[in-house]
Structures are given as structure tokens and as C-alpha cells.
Design brief:
The protein is mainly β. Helices cover 8% and strands 46% of the residues.
């Protein structure tokens, strides 16, 4: 394509990693996230409605985005086709989905990252459909 420029961004697995210690992970799992258990089966997870509002402002539309921490069992993420015991994922937009084949009961945690939560407004709902 004429005028098209591709640029790579190299992310080092140690140098560019924001490490979360056991205390921080416990806080996400126990205090911050809304959680549910997924029993064995195939699930499609998606944002059903709502958005994450960065500001308490009627002109701010908000963004349909959520962070997912999935752990404590065994499952196959159908986007990677890898069998794992834990993974991070996001849902970005109303049409984004995550399909999991749960092999052993697994925890699904959903939450947001933000640097200033006092101005947050709105909520979103994710659905998990067992096939």
C-alpha cells in the first residue's frame, strides 16, 4: 500500500512488565473485582450493556471496556487455543467476545483499572453464556 508505514513495538517480558505481588492480586480477587465461578463447559463472555465512564460528566460517553482475570482452574482460551490455569484478558467494545472451554472449575473476575476513581460513573454488565 502506498503511503503505509508499519512500525514494531517490542515489549520485553521483564523490563516492560508491571509486576503484581500476592497482596495486590489478593486485593483484586477479594475486594475489587466482581467474581463468579465457571463450571466445566464452553462459555462465551461479552459486554451485554453499559460502559466505563472516566468522568462524572453528561458529555462523556464512556467506554465499553473491562479487564478480566481468569484463574484457579484449567481452561482453553479459544483465541489462543492454549490450555492454561490463569490468564488476563479484556473485552473492548460491545462486539468483543471471549470464548473459554472450561476443563476444571475456574474463577472469572471482572474489574477496571483507573488512576482516579472518584470521578467514575456508570456501570457495565458482562454476560457469560454457557453453550
Amino acid at each position: 500500500m502506498e503511503g503505509c508505514t508499519a512500525t514494531d513495538l517490542k515489549i520485553d517480558s521483564k523490563k516492560n512488565c508491571y509486576a503484581l505481588n500476592a497482596e495486590a492480586m489478593g486485593k483484586i480477587q477479594e475486594e475489587t473485582a466482581v467474581s463468579t465461578k465457571l463450571e466445566p463447559g464452553i462459555y462465551v463472555i461479552r459486554i451485554r450493556s453499559g460502559s466505563f465512564g472516566y468522568q462524572n460528566d453528561a458529555n462523556n460517553i464512556g467506554e465499553p471496556i473491562v479487564m478480566l482475570w481468569i484463574y484457579g482452574g484449567k481452561f482453553i482460551n479459544k483465541k489462543t487455543n492454549l490450555e492454561v490455569e490463569a490468564t488476563w484478558s479484556t473485552l473492548n467494545g460491545d462486539d468483543d467476545t471471549l470464548t473459554l472451554e472450561v476443563l476444571k472449575t475456574t474463577n472469572l473476575c471482572a474489574f477496571f483499572f483507573d488512576s482516579y476513581i472518584e470521578d467514575n460513573e456508570r456501570e457495565l454488565i458482562i454476560s457469560r453464556v454457557k453453550m
